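Researcher: Here's my situation. A collaborator sent me these components and asked whether they could plausibly form a single complex. I don't have experimental data yet, so a predicted model of the whole assembly would be a useful starting point for our discussion.
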Amino acid sequence: MMQDKDIQTIERQVFRSTVNDGLADMRAGFILSILAIAPLLSSTLGDFWSTVVWLPVYLAADVLLRLIKRRVVIPRLGHVQFGPERKARIRRTLIFLLGANILSFIAGLVFSVRISSGFMPSPWTVSTVLALFLVAAFSAAGLMMQLNRFFIYGLGTGLAALAGEWLFQRRMASHHGFPVVFGAASVILIGIGVLQFMHFLHHHPSSPEGEKNGRE
Amino acid sequence: MAGNEPNGPPRPDAGIDRIIHEPARYRIMATLYVVESADFLFLERQTGLTKGNLSSHLAKLEAAGYVQILKEFIGKKPHTMLALTENGRKAFDAYRQGMKRMLNVQEP
């Protein structure tokens, strides 16, 4: 019964209902697909351009997901403005994610420069750093959206990074296993997102125009 | 509001706001309490109430001065949002405190 629930629990549930439409899972899946596709293209295009050519594909997917949110999800869910505490929490997480991305970008640059001057870290070190980054990024997203499955995604993709290296060391996969493990991870995440989106559509039938605001 | 029995001890439910105490209205108040504002459709989805039911409960809450209607523009379209008034927030806080007190009194 709702009267027994703490007010914070209600706030979390209300917030979670606005992000639990599967689109975040699909977006995460598309981001992971960069890690799967870029190494395959790198042999022909080089490390830099293999990532760059994949970005428009990711951006197109991002625009599509934003359109779905605006045109399909919000008209079925309704509009809501959250309070200052929730907004501040979202801002803090986004700043953390932005900081993590900037740090990883700088680390990547330093890494590239050092590799060109003869430095070669252990492949396990690289995989472990990537695994930790994935765990941290997915956990921050899970914390922000109050979606527990994102913690599992973080753990799963972190382990996938290590599993990829393990497969590569045993000559069972190319490119440090990235295409196999992150390809599989992105398919799983996009698949879960699609199922979650269908679940959302099933439980949120479209509301006829004009009845959206029953008090107008 | 619940009163006291004439010449008797105060009833444990004294001070419990009957407007908020109705489960459907409590759900509406609780949802609006945790957000800044929400539209009719969002409240309908969150509370699971039918349009008619939600409309009638909102009318009662509005008449009590607990809920206010805000006209906003989303893009270029006018949009009706609902929010708790300051009185509504205070009444909801008081209701929760009252319920806690009542439950504490009734514990053996």
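Model: Some features of this prediction you could bring to your collaborator: The radius of gyration of chain B is 16 Å. Chain B touches chain A at residues 23, 26-27, 30-31, 33-46, 51, 54-55, 58, 69, 74, 79-82, 96, 99 (CB under 8 Å).
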